[in-house]
Design brief:
seven-stranded mixed beta sheet, binds pyridoxal-5'-phosphate, alpha/beta, Aspartate Aminotransferase, domain 2, four-stranded mixed beta sheet, 2 domains, single chain, Aspartate Aminotransferase, domain 1
């Protein structure tokens, strides 16, 4: 467990500041260097973020020596946990042989083969350096393949930070810095409304693609009905629109073949990253050979100027990422990693829900596969219990995640868990094969103590 300050009189925020004094000091330096003192929007934290010094398996330690059960697992990249020995050994050996050849090499072929073997849609593969680059490439491929301009995305679905996928409207204005002309090519729709999607595909002949997270927005913060996923596949086939399944998180996690193998809904293109590269940077687009052919040069007159998608990228398929990735995917292919994390996440959700029920909280812990999200109180009516099945279900009022419903509570809750030795990703997290039932029990105990603290401070709506 993380060491906790044993002074009952301290408020949560006083405990936080005292326990993480070393992080507070580092942050004073960082604010003069980085906007917000942060290097990623999701890592910005008030009053300061924790500075981590080392990590192993399911745990990480900060500069003050506090230990955390890590549910971020490298923003979801570390399915096999921190410092998996096989990956460390393979990457160390590759380091000795060179980190970048600026040339073709055997490890990229091995890596690409693993993607082809595991991901059902992967007739062809092209590596990128991140998931953002992968979704950018997928949309450009869809546009050139269909000769159309527009892309349908769904509300809250996250696909990285490039100009197209950050658009959330209208009625929302274009995000800061995104030209209106770019935003105008995006059609943002609510999920679970196939009639509306069909109307768009029928009435607008300029739609190239539909892009979506297969388990729902924000790694299933907003859960998606698998029937809707299947319905989108059918409509995109009916109307000749490219379906891009963004498996940056779900790929190799829900099953060795990602959400597409788990659900049987096979897209035209898939964006991949995170687990793909075994904990190092990397991404990929994998998909239909006829669409991916637009990345290739051709002797066909005019092709290279007008039909070929240009793609460079200094670190594409670099030997270190290729080595880490193929070592990780060989283990993923054994099947047990996805089973382990899915089963353990179900246990974690059940244990956390028990704690929540014991405290009489109206929220719940929900999620799918190896992912979980926490909602401390029912955002619609804090005094009425909400169950995982109600969240995002048809007929319910539009669901609001905890971080949007109550940012102050959310921040306090995260700090409380950190004080008790647990680090979340947003309002939940993901599991790795390094997590054990012992970690689940420890996390449940930390959850229990954190709720006690919040109740003492009277911060949970609906709880006296
Ligand atoms: C579903 C999804 N797509 C795309 C991305 C962007 O990937 P990256 O952070 O590697 O650019 C993310 C990142 O979390 C993601 O979750």
């Amino acid at each position: 467990m993380g060491t906790t300050v044993g002074t009952a009189n301290l408020t949560l925020d006083e405990q936080f500041t005292r326990q993480f004094a070393g992080s507070a000091a580092r942050f004073q330096d960082a604010v003069d260097i980085f906007p917000n003192g942060a290097t990623h929007d999701g890592r910005a934290q008030k009053p300061f973020p924790l500075y981590i010094e080392r990590a192993q398996g399911a745990h990480k330690w900060d500069v003050d020596g506090n230990r955390f059960i890590d549910f971020l697992v490298g923003h979801g990249a570390l399915l096999l946990g921190h410092g998996h020995p096989a990956i460390v050994e393979a990457v160390n050996a590759q380091m000795q042989r060179g980190t970048h050849y600026g040339a073709a090499h055997e490890r990229e072929v091995e890596w690409g083969r693993w993607v082809q073997r595991l991901i059902p849609a992967a007739e062809r593969v092209r590596f990128t350096s991140s998931g953002t680059e992968a979704t950018l490439m997928a949309l450009r491929l869809a546009r050139v393949f269909t000769g159309k301009n527009k892309v349908v995305k769904f509300e809250h679905h996250f696909h990285g930070w490039h100009d197209y996928v950050v658009v959330e409207g209208p009625p929302e204005p274009p995000p800061a810095g995104v030209p209106a002309g770019t935003a105008d090519t995006m059609v943002v729709l609510p999920v679970h409304d196939l009639e509306r999607l069909e109307a768009v595909l029928r009435d607008d002949s300029d739609v190239a693609a539909v892009i979506m997270e297969p388990t729902g927005a924000g790694y299933a913060t907003y859960p998606l009905d698998p029937d809707f996923l299947a319905g989108v596949r059918k409509l995109t086939l009916d109307y000749g629109v490219v379906l891009v399944m963004d498996e940056v998180i779900t790929g190799f996690r829900c099953s060795p073949g990602g959400a597409q193998a788990a659900t049987g809904v096979i897209p035209d293109l898939t964006s991949l990253a995170k687990i793909l590269a075994g904990g190092l940077p990397g991404g990929a687009v994998a998909g239909r050979a006829d669409i991916m052919a637009h990345l290739a040069y051709s002797d066909e007159p005019g092709w290279n100027a007008r039909k070929k998608v240009r793609h460079q990228g200094t670190f594409n398929a670099n030997p270190l990422s290729a080595t880490a990735g193929s070592t990780a995917l060989a283990i993923v292919a054994e099947g047990w990693p996805a089973r382990h994390v899915n089963d353990l996440a179900a246990l974690l959700r059940a244990e956390l829900n028990q704690v929540m029920d014991a405290h009489g909280l109206s929220g719940c812990v929900y999620g799918t596969y190896s992912m979980f999200h926490i909602l401390l109180s029912n955002p619609h009516n804090p005094r009425e219990k909400i169950s995982p099945a109600d969240i995002g279900a048809a007929g319910q009022p539009p669901f609001i995640a905890m971080r949007d419903a109550d940012a102050a509570l959310f921040g306090k809750f995260k700090r409380g868990l950190q004080v008790h030795g647990v680090d979340l990703m947003g309002d939940g997290g993901m599991l790795s094969t390094a997590h054990t039932e012992e970690d689940v029990r420890e996390a449940a105990a930390a959850f229990d103590r954190t709720i006690d603290l919040l109740k003492q401070e009277g911060t949970i709506p609906g709880v006296r």
